[in-house]
Amino acid sequence: MLRVPSVTGVQNFGASPVGWDSHLSRILFLLLLFVVSAQGVTPNPDACLVSHSGNGSSISCQPPARLPHYFPADTVYLAVEFFNLTQLPANTLQGIPNLQELHLSSNQLEDLSAKFLLPVPQLKVLDLTRNALTRLPPGLFQVSAALHTLVLKENQLKVLEASWLHSLKALRHLDLSGNQLQTLPPGLLASFTDLLILDLGNNQLQTLRPDLLSGPLRLERLHLEGNRLQELGKGLLAHQPKLRYLFLNDNRLATVAAGAFRGLQKLDMLDLSNNLLTTVPEGLWMSLGKAAGNMKDGFDLSGNPWICDRKLDDLFEWLVANEDKMFFRNDTRCAGPKALKGQMLLVVARSP
After folding, report:
1. What is the DSSP annotation of 116-177?
2. Which of 72-76, 228-232, 348-352 has the lowest mean pLDDT?
3. Does the keyword Repeat apply (predicted)?
Protein backbone atom coordinates (compact mmCIF):
# COMPACT_ATOMS: atom_id res chain seq x y z
CA MET A 1 0.00 0.00 0.00
CA LEU A 2 1.21 3.50 -0.84
CA ARG A 3 2.11 5.38 2.33
CA VAL A 4 1.31 9.09 2.14
CA PRO A 5 3.20 11.43 4.52
CA SER A 6 0.97 13.24 6.99
CA VAL A 7 0.16 16.76 5.85
CA THR A 8 -0.96 19.86 7.71
CA GLY A 9 -1.81 22.79 5.51
CA VAL A 10 -1.44 23.09 1.76
CA GLN A 11 0.48 25.35 -0.59
CA ASN A 12 0.89 25.55 -4.36
CA PHE A 13 4.40 24.09 -4.27
CA GLY A 14 5.84 21.50 -2.00
CA ALA A 15 8.86 20.26 -0.20
CA SER A 16 11.19 17.55 -1.35
CA PRO A 17 13.41 15.05 0.40
CA VAL A 18 16.97 16.30 0.72
CA GLY A 19 18.98 15.91 -2.48
CA TRP A 20 16.02 15.52 -4.86
CA ASP A 21 15.84 17.71 -7.91
CA SER A 22 13.60 20.69 -7.08
CA HIS A 23 11.44 20.38 -10.21
CA LEU A 24 10.85 16.68 -9.65
CA SER A 25 10.05 17.26 -5.99
CA ARG A 26 7.40 19.84 -6.85
CA ILE A 27 5.77 17.51 -9.37
CA LEU A 28 5.69 14.76 -6.75
CA PHE A 29 4.22 17.18 -4.26
CA LEU A 30 1.39 18.12 -6.60
CA LEU A 31 0.63 14.42 -6.93
CA LEU A 32 0.62 14.21 -3.15
CA LEU A 33 -1.90 17.03 -2.96
CA PHE A 34 -4.11 15.16 -5.39
CA VAL A 35 -4.02 12.04 -3.21
CA VAL A 36 -4.61 14.03 -0.03
CA SER A 37 -7.52 15.89 -1.61
CA ALA A 38 -9.03 12.62 -2.76
CA GLN A 39 -8.90 11.39 0.83
CA GLY A 40 -10.97 14.32 2.01
CA VAL A 41 -8.34 16.55 3.63
CA THR A 42 -9.35 20.21 3.28
CA PRO A 43 -6.50 22.50 2.16
CA ASN A 44 -5.72 25.45 4.41
CA PRO A 45 -4.37 28.37 2.32
CA ASP A 46 -3.10 30.20 5.43
CA ALA A 47 -0.78 27.37 6.48
CA CYS A 48 2.57 26.21 5.19
CA LEU A 49 2.82 22.67 3.96
CA VAL A 50 4.42 20.32 6.44
CA SER A 51 5.15 16.74 5.39
CA HIS A 52 6.79 14.10 7.53
CA SER A 53 9.01 11.21 6.56
CA GLY A 54 11.62 9.02 8.13
CA ASN A 55 14.27 11.63 7.36
CA GLY A 56 12.44 14.44 9.16
CA SER A 57 10.00 17.24 8.38
CA SER A 58 9.85 19.15 5.11
CA ILE A 59 8.22 22.58 5.10
CA SER A 60 7.25 24.80 2.18
CA CYS A 61 5.80 28.28 2.68
CA GLN A 62 4.54 30.62 -0.03
CA PRO A 63 1.93 33.38 0.03
CA PRO A 64 -0.82 33.53 1.15
CA ALA A 65 0.47 31.24 3.89
CA ARG A 66 1.44 32.82 7.18
CA LEU A 67 4.97 32.17 8.35
CA PRO A 68 5.06 30.17 11.60
CA HIS A 69 6.87 31.44 14.69
CA TYR A 70 8.91 28.25 14.89
CA PHE A 71 9.62 25.13 12.85
CA PRO A 72 9.62 21.46 13.92
CA ALA A 73 12.92 20.48 15.51
CA ASP A 74 13.38 17.66 12.99
CA THR A 75 13.07 19.95 9.93
CA VAL A 76 15.45 18.87 7.16
CA TYR A 77 13.96 20.85 4.25
CA LEU A 78 12.68 24.44 4.45
CA ALA A 79 11.42 26.66 1.64
CA VAL A 80 10.27 30.21 2.31
CA GLU A 81 9.72 31.77 -1.11
CA PHE A 82 7.91 34.70 -2.78
CA PHE A 83 7.32 36.64 0.46
CA ASN A 84 9.28 39.80 -0.50
CA LEU A 85 11.18 39.64 2.77
CA THR A 86 13.95 42.23 3.00
CA GLN A 87 15.49 40.95 6.24
CA LEU A 88 15.56 37.78 8.30
CA PRO A 89 16.42 37.74 12.03
CA ALA A 90 19.76 36.17 12.91
CA ASN A 91 17.99 33.49 14.96
CA THR A 92 15.51 32.45 12.23
CA LEU A 93 17.01 28.96 11.99
CA GLN A 94 17.47 28.43 15.72
CA GLY A 95 16.11 25.09 16.90
CA ILE A 96 16.36 23.15 13.60
CA PRO A 97 19.95 21.84 13.74
CA ASN A 98 19.30 19.02 11.25
CA LEU A 99 18.33 21.34 8.37
CA GLN A 100 19.92 20.20 5.11
CA GLU A 101 18.15 22.25 2.41
CA LEU A 102 17.17 25.92 2.65
CA HIS A 103 15.36 27.70 -0.19
CA LEU A 104 14.82 31.46 0.17
CA SER A 105 14.33 32.35 -3.49
CA SER A 106 12.20 35.18 -4.87
CA ASN A 107 12.24 37.37 -1.81
CA GLN A 108 13.87 40.80 -1.56
CA LEU A 109 16.60 39.98 0.93
CA GLU A 110 19.11 42.82 1.09
CA ASP A 111 21.48 41.38 3.68
CA LEU A 112 22.06 38.40 5.93
CA SER A 113 23.49 38.28 9.41
CA ALA A 114 26.91 36.67 9.76
CA LYS A 115 25.29 34.45 12.42
CA PHE A 116 22.38 33.36 10.21
CA LEU A 117 23.71 29.87 9.38
CA LEU A 118 25.35 29.10 12.74
CA PRO A 119 22.41 26.95 13.98
CA VAL A 120 22.45 24.69 10.88
CA PRO A 121 25.93 23.11 10.50
CA GLN A 122 24.51 20.20 8.45
CA LEU A 123 23.18 22.44 5.68
CA LYS A 124 23.94 21.02 2.23
CA VAL A 125 21.91 23.22 -0.14
CA LEU A 126 21.36 26.99 0.08
CA ASP A 127 19.27 28.68 -2.61
CA LEU A 128 19.11 32.48 -2.55
CA THR A 129 17.91 32.98 -6.14
CA ARG A 130 16.25 36.29 -7.06
CA ASN A 131 16.94 38.42 -4.01
CA ALA A 132 18.58 41.83 -3.61
CA LEU A 133 21.88 40.87 -2.02
CA THR A 134 24.77 43.22 -2.78
CA ARG A 135 27.26 41.46 -0.50
CA LEU A 136 27.73 38.48 1.79
CA PRO A 137 28.76 39.01 5.41
CA PRO A 138 32.23 37.69 6.30
CA GLY A 139 31.85 34.53 8.38
CA LEU A 140 28.43 33.57 6.98
CA PHE A 141 29.71 30.09 6.08
CA GLN A 142 32.02 29.52 9.05
CA VAL A 143 30.17 26.31 10.09
CA SER A 144 28.99 25.32 6.60
CA ALA A 145 31.58 22.64 5.85
CA ALA A 146 28.84 20.31 4.55
CA LEU A 147 27.41 22.78 2.01
CA HIS A 148 27.69 21.37 -1.52
CA THR A 149 25.27 23.64 -3.45
CA LEU A 150 25.22 27.44 -3.25
CA VAL A 151 22.90 29.37 -5.58
CA LEU A 152 23.20 33.17 -5.62
CA LYS A 153 21.58 33.58 -9.01
CA GLU A 154 19.92 36.90 -9.94
CA ASN A 155 20.97 39.05 -7.03
CA GLN A 156 22.76 42.41 -7.17
CA LEU A 157 26.32 41.36 -6.47
CA LYS A 158 28.81 43.73 -8.08
CA VAL A 159 31.92 42.47 -6.30
CA LEU A 160 33.02 39.28 -4.59
CA GLU A 161 35.62 38.67 -1.93
CA ALA A 162 37.33 35.29 -1.97
CA SER A 163 37.25 35.18 1.84
CA TRP A 164 33.44 35.03 1.79
CA LEU A 165 33.52 31.49 0.38
CA HIS A 166 36.75 30.00 1.69
CA SER A 167 35.04 27.77 4.29
CA LEU A 168 33.10 25.85 1.63
CA LYS A 169 35.48 22.94 1.12
CA ALA A 170 32.74 20.54 -0.02
CA LEU A 171 31.17 22.83 -2.63
CA ARG A 172 30.22 21.06 -5.86
CA HIS A 173 27.81 23.55 -7.43
CA LEU A 174 28.29 27.33 -7.38
CA ASP A 175 25.82 29.56 -9.24
CA LEU A 176 26.66 33.28 -9.44
CA SER A 177 24.77 33.92 -12.66
CA GLY A 178 22.60 36.94 -13.34
CA ASN A 179 24.48 39.37 -11.10
CA GLN A 180 26.52 42.47 -11.97
CA LEU A 181 30.03 41.11 -11.54
CA GLN A 182 32.68 42.88 -13.62
CA THR A 183 35.76 41.20 -12.14
CA LEU A 184 36.57 38.19 -9.99
CA PRO A 185 39.09 38.28 -7.14
CA PRO A 186 42.29 36.20 -7.06
CA GLY A 187 41.88 32.85 -5.36
CA LEU A 188 38.08 32.85 -5.57
CA LEU A 189 37.92 29.11 -6.33
CA ALA A 190 41.25 28.06 -4.83
CA SER A 191 39.75 25.76 -2.19
CA PHE A 192 37.00 24.22 -4.35
CA THR A 193 38.80 21.08 -5.47
CA ASP A 194 35.51 19.14 -5.80
CA LEU A 195 33.58 21.78 -7.77
CA LEU A 196 31.61 20.20 -10.63
CA ILE A 197 29.38 23.05 -11.83
CA LEU A 198 30.33 26.73 -12.05
CA ASP A 199 27.85 29.24 -13.42
CA LEU A 200 29.13 32.78 -14.03
CA GLY A 201 26.73 33.46 -16.87
CA ASN A 202 24.94 36.75 -17.52
CA ASN A 203 27.24 39.02 -15.58
CA GLN A 204 29.43 41.84 -16.90
CA LEU A 205 32.80 40.08 -16.96
CA GLN A 206 35.23 41.44 -19.55
CA THR A 207 38.31 39.38 -18.68
CA LEU A 208 39.07 36.26 -16.67
CA ARG A 209 42.23 35.58 -14.72
CA PRO A 210 44.25 32.74 -16.34
CA ASP A 211 44.41 30.98 -12.95
CA LEU A 212 40.70 31.32 -12.20
CA LEU A 213 40.12 27.57 -12.54
CA SER A 214 43.41 26.34 -11.10
CA GLY A 215 41.66 25.20 -7.89
CA PRO A 216 38.85 22.97 -9.20
CA LEU A 217 40.15 19.68 -10.57
CA ARG A 218 36.87 17.97 -11.51
CA LEU A 219 34.85 20.69 -13.24
CA GLU A 220 32.25 19.23 -15.61
CA ARG A 221 30.09 22.21 -16.51
CA LEU A 222 31.20 25.82 -17.04
CA HIS A 223 28.80 28.65 -17.86
CA LEU A 224 30.36 31.91 -19.08
CA GLU A 225 27.60 32.96 -21.48
CA GLY A 226 26.08 36.42 -21.55
CA ASN A 227 29.16 38.33 -20.40
CA ARG A 228 31.46 40.79 -22.20
CA LEU A 229 34.46 38.53 -22.73
CA GLN A 230 36.64 39.51 -25.69
CA GLU A 231 39.32 36.83 -25.52
CA LEU A 232 39.67 33.19 -24.50
CA GLY A 233 43.25 32.54 -23.42
CA LYS A 234 45.11 29.25 -23.63
CA GLY A 235 45.55 28.82 -19.89
CA LEU A 236 41.99 29.20 -18.59
CA LEU A 237 40.85 25.62 -19.29
CA ALA A 238 44.24 23.94 -19.01
CA HIS A 239 43.41 22.22 -15.71
CA GLN A 240 39.96 20.95 -16.72
CA PRO A 241 40.36 17.60 -18.52
CA LYS A 242 36.94 16.43 -17.26
CA LEU A 243 35.00 19.41 -18.62
CA ARG A 244 31.91 18.23 -20.51
CA TYR A 245 29.83 21.37 -21.11
CA LEU A 246 31.29 24.75 -22.06
CA PHE A 247 29.05 27.76 -22.68
CA LEU A 248 30.75 30.85 -24.14
CA ASN A 249 27.85 32.15 -26.21
CA ASP A 250 26.61 35.76 -26.26
CA ASN A 251 29.91 37.38 -25.39
CA ARG A 252 32.16 39.63 -27.49
CA LEU A 253 34.81 37.01 -28.24
CA ALA A 254 36.99 38.03 -31.15
CA THR A 255 40.05 35.93 -30.25
CA VAL A 256 40.49 32.34 -29.14
CA ALA A 257 44.03 31.19 -28.35
CA ALA A 258 45.43 28.24 -30.30
CA GLY A 259 45.71 26.06 -27.21
CA ALA A 260 42.46 27.13 -25.57
CA PHE A 261 40.79 23.73 -25.99
CA ARG A 262 43.84 21.54 -25.60
CA GLY A 263 43.13 18.61 -23.29
CA LEU A 264 39.32 18.88 -23.45
CA GLN A 265 38.89 15.33 -24.66
CA LYS A 266 35.66 14.74 -22.75
CA LEU A 267 33.77 17.77 -24.06
CA ASP A 268 30.15 16.87 -24.86
CA MET A 269 28.93 20.36 -25.79
CA LEU A 270 30.53 23.62 -26.93
CA ASP A 271 28.59 26.84 -27.51
CA LEU A 272 30.46 29.74 -29.14
CA SER A 273 27.41 31.31 -30.79
CA ASN A 274 26.71 35.04 -31.01
CA ASN A 275 30.23 36.33 -30.63
CA LEU A 276 32.55 38.35 -32.88
CA LEU A 277 34.68 35.52 -34.24
CA THR A 278 35.95 36.01 -37.79
CA THR A 279 38.75 33.43 -37.74
CA VAL A 280 40.52 31.01 -35.42
CA PRO A 281 44.14 29.89 -35.15
CA GLU A 282 45.39 26.75 -36.85
CA GLY A 283 45.11 23.65 -34.72
CA LEU A 284 42.36 24.93 -32.43
CA TRP A 285 39.74 22.43 -33.54
CA MET A 286 42.01 19.47 -34.04
CA SER A 287 42.86 19.64 -30.33
CA LEU A 288 39.29 18.39 -29.81
CA GLY A 289 39.97 15.43 -32.07
CA LYS A 290 39.43 15.15 -35.80
CA ALA A 291 36.11 13.45 -35.20
CA ALA A 292 34.99 14.65 -31.81
CA GLY A 293 33.21 11.43 -30.91
CA ASN A 294 32.71 12.58 -27.36
CA MET A 295 30.87 15.79 -28.36
CA LYS A 296 27.60 13.90 -28.25
CA ASP A 297 25.44 16.89 -27.30
CA GLY A 298 26.66 19.06 -30.17
CA PHE A 299 28.25 22.44 -30.83
CA ASP A 300 27.05 25.87 -31.97
CA LEU A 301 29.15 28.37 -33.96
CA SER A 302 26.25 30.43 -35.32
CA GLY A 303 25.90 34.19 -35.12
CA ASN A 304 29.59 34.97 -35.75
CA PRO A 305 30.94 37.09 -38.66
CA TRP A 306 33.15 34.34 -40.12
CA ILE A 307 35.61 35.30 -42.87
CA CYS A 308 35.66 32.18 -45.01
CA ASP A 309 39.20 32.16 -46.35
CA ARG A 310 42.07 29.68 -46.17
CA LYS A 311 42.65 30.52 -42.51
CA LEU A 312 39.53 28.50 -41.71
CA ASP A 313 40.76 25.33 -43.42
CA ASP A 314 41.22 23.62 -40.06
CA LEU A 315 37.71 24.55 -39.04
CA PHE A 316 36.27 23.46 -42.39
CA GLU A 317 37.87 20.03 -42.06
CA TRP A 318 36.60 19.66 -38.52
CA LEU A 319 33.07 20.76 -39.49
CA VAL A 320 32.82 18.15 -42.23
CA ALA A 321 33.96 15.45 -39.80
CA ASN A 322 31.43 16.54 -37.17
CA GLU A 323 28.56 18.02 -39.17
CA ASP A 324 25.99 15.69 -37.58
CA LYS A 325 26.60 17.42 -34.24
CA MET A 326 26.31 20.99 -35.54
CA PHE A 327 23.46 23.22 -34.32
CA PHE A 328 21.87 26.03 -36.37
CA ARG A 329 23.70 25.31 -39.61
CA ASN A 330 21.52 27.80 -41.45
CA ASP A 331 22.62 30.58 -39.07
CA THR A 332 26.31 29.74 -39.34
CA ARG A 333 27.31 31.79 -42.39
CA CYS A 334 30.19 33.63 -43.97
CA ALA A 335 30.40 37.40 -43.52
CA GLY A 336 33.21 37.58 -46.09
CA PRO A 337 34.95 37.67 -48.45
CA LYS A 338 32.42 39.32 -50.72
CA ALA A 339 32.12 36.33 -53.07
CA LEU A 340 31.11 34.03 -50.20
CA LYS A 341 29.12 36.46 -48.08
CA GLY A 342 25.90 34.88 -46.85
CA GLN A 343 26.86 31.31 -47.72
CA MET A 344 26.54 28.62 -45.09
CA LEU A 345 29.85 27.75 -43.48
CA LEU A 346 29.21 24.04 -43.89
CA VAL A 347 28.53 24.43 -47.64
CA VAL A 348 31.83 26.28 -48.08
CA ALA A 349 33.60 23.65 -45.98
CA ARG A 350 32.35 20.90 -48.30
CA SER A 351 33.46 22.77 -51.43
CA PRO A 352 36.60 21.46 -53.18
Report:
1. TTTT-TT--EEE--S---S---TTTTTT-TT--EEE-TTS------GGGTTT-TT--EEE-T
2. 348-352
3. yes
